[in-house]
Design a protein that fits this description.
The protein is mostly beta strands. It is built from 3 helices and 9 strands, in the order E-E-E-H-E-H-E-E-E-E-E-H.
Length: about 170
């Protein structure tokens, strides 16, 4: 009998965040994510409820409300500066630049455009204004051990360092 996802089951899955309009993969994981379902909130409540009752081999897609998660797009966080005012190391599209205001507060901006006269910086989260889908593929489901339930995930063994020389 196949195990189904329910509270205190250990689940391994992989996921991608996909742009709904273009189909482009915006982010994902290379290695499986393991967690104990219903404990320690590794995933959002919405995603966990979609996983309830599923089994290994299932794939689900959960819409992501990017404006709810990251806030609506704010055009006042986009500015253009003359290229001569921008150090050369900051003239690369995709680069994240941390800037500080008069109060000492910092904010990350992404270089979104560079031309011969100017550089455009955007302080919005790249997910703002997008319609995205959280696509999850369930790899395995099994009973979690008591230790895994307490930790909220798999217990990893560290390297055996007994007998090693301290430096």
């Amino acid at each position: 009998m196949e195990e189904i996802i329910e509270k205190d089951k250990y689940v391994e899955l992989i996921y991608q965040v996909v742009d709904k309009k273009t189909g482009a993969v915006l982010s994902g994981v290379e290695f499986p994510l393991g967690y104990v379902h219903g404990t320690h909130r590794v995933l959002s409540a919405d995603v966990e409820s979609e996983l309830d009752g599923r089994k290994a081999g299932d794939t689900i897609e959960v819409p992501i409300d990017c404006d709810k998660l990251f806030g609506p797009r704010d055009e006042s966080l986009v500015f253009i500066d003359a290229i001569d005012n921008v150090p050369e190391e900051y003239r690369e599209v995709g680069l994240t630049v941390t800037m500080e205001n008069e109060k000492g507060d910092t904010k990350n901006f992404i270089v979104t455009r560079v031309d011969e006269k100017s550089v455009t910086f955007d302080g919005n989260n790249p997910m703002c204004g997008r319609e995205a889908v959280f696509k999850l593929e369930i790899l395995s489901v099994r009973d979690a051990t008591d230790e895994e339930i307490e930790a909220g995930g798999k217990i990893e063994e560290g390297p055996d360092i007994a007998g090693m020389v301290k430096i």
